[in-house]
Write a structure and sequence with these properties.
With 192 residues, the protein is an alpha/beta fold. 56% of the residues lie in helices and 14% in strands. It has 7 helices and 7 strands, in the order βββαβααβαβααβα. It has a 5-stranded parallel β-sheet, with helices on both faces. A two-stranded antiparallel ribbon has the order 1-2. The radius of gyration is 16 Å and the shape is globular. The N and C termini lie close together (9 Å). The N terminus is likely disordered.
């Protein structure tokens, strides 16, 4: 099993895997299954934000834009880093929100404690999933409402993909692979 040293907390952590990527890459599904396989704790930062402040990330964004959401995301990641430090003998799998790439402070919190895994998924697959989610919800997410949603999402995709690729310790090309195939590949890469 891989180990990381936390510079801030000065301890060695067992495997802490931080799953990153854009909206709808499957981070939460993969993360929950991976945590069960590793007998590790699983945390989804979007769920943690909701638990801590009583509002979903979408509600926060709708209420106060990206600044409000980024502040809550940072506080959740800071708290999570502290929790990992308190329990240095437990492995963790952390699924992050799709906008983490644009929240450097929150990203840095998690990079200090874990191995950053970028789940790289092609634009067409992600946009199809975003579109289906919008149809179920009856509206596009607010950040895609001021113009052509496809073009707005393409700009976001290009910008965030570059950041995730640069920050990642491990990049997995997901495509339409099932979660179990991605998990096998990740475990092979993390243990080598």
């Amino acid at each position: 099993m891989a180990f990381n040293t936390s510079g801030d907390f000065g301890i060695v952590h067992p495997m802490i895997l931080v799953l990153t990527g854009l909206k709808h890459t499957g981070k939460s599904t993969i993360g929950a299954q991976l945590a069960r396989k590793l007998n590790a704790r699983f945390t989804d930062t979007d769920a943690l934000i909701t638990e801590r402040c009583g509002k979903t990330p979408r509600e926060l964004f709708d209420e106060g834009g990206s600044a409000l959401m980024a502040g809550e995301e940072y506080r959740a990641c800071e708290w999570l880093a502290s929790e990992c430090a308190k329990d240095p003998h437990t492995g963790w799998v952390i699924a992050t929100g799709g906008a983490l790439a644009e929240n450097q402070k929150a990203f840095d919190c998690l990079k200090k404690i874990g191995t950053i895994v970028y789940i790289d998924t092609p634009f067409e697959i992600l946009f199809d999933r975003v579109q289906k989610s919008a149809e179920r919800d009856g509206r596009w997410p607010k950040f895609l409402q001021n113009g052509d949603p496809r073009e707005i999402f393409r700009d976001i995709f290009v910008k965030r993909s570059e950041i995730y690729a640069r920050m990642a310790d491990i990049t997995l090309l997901a495509g339409r692979k099932p979660p179990q195939a991605i998990i096998r590949e990740l475990l092979d890469r993390a243990s080598s």
